[in-house]
């Protein structure tokens, strides 16, 4: 599939159906949806009184926290690699 071809994938996240449109493969979209669903369920287990909106926001906050940590680690490793190359 080319990078510009859009793909529609039906997924279920926290009991709600969604159709996600993107250029990634259906398998990738299903994996992402599964990870979001799993994170929402983990947070809900620890905080059962959260409404769906707060649960979604906390899931997004967790995802961005993980992203920032990975980005920082990537940049650190990239700098280390550049030092080794010199």
Automatic annotation (TrEMBL):
One annotated Gene Ontology cellular component of this protein: cell septum
A GO biological process held by the record: division septum assembly
This protein's UniProt keywords: Cell cycle, Cell division, Cytoplasm, Septation
Source domain of life: Bacteria
Cell compartments where the protein resides: Cytoplasm
InterPro entries cross-referenced by the UniProt entry: Bac_CellDiv_Activator, Cell_div_ZapA-like, Cell_div_ZapA-like_sf
Complexes and interactors: Homodimer. Interacts with FtsZ.
Protein name: Cell division protein ZapA
Organism the protein comes from: Cytobacillus horneckiae
């Amino acid at each position: 599939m080319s990078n510009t071809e859009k793909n529609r994938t039906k997924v279920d996240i926290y009991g709600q159906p969604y159709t996600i449109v993107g250029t990634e493969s259906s398998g990738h979209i299903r994996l992402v949806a599964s990870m979001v669903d799993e994170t929402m369920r983990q947070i809900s287990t620890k905080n059962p009184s959260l409404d769906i909106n707060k649960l979604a926001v906390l899931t997004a906050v967790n995802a961005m926290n993980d992203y920032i940590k990975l980005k920082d680690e990537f940049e650190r490793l990239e700098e280390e690699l550049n030092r080794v190359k010199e």
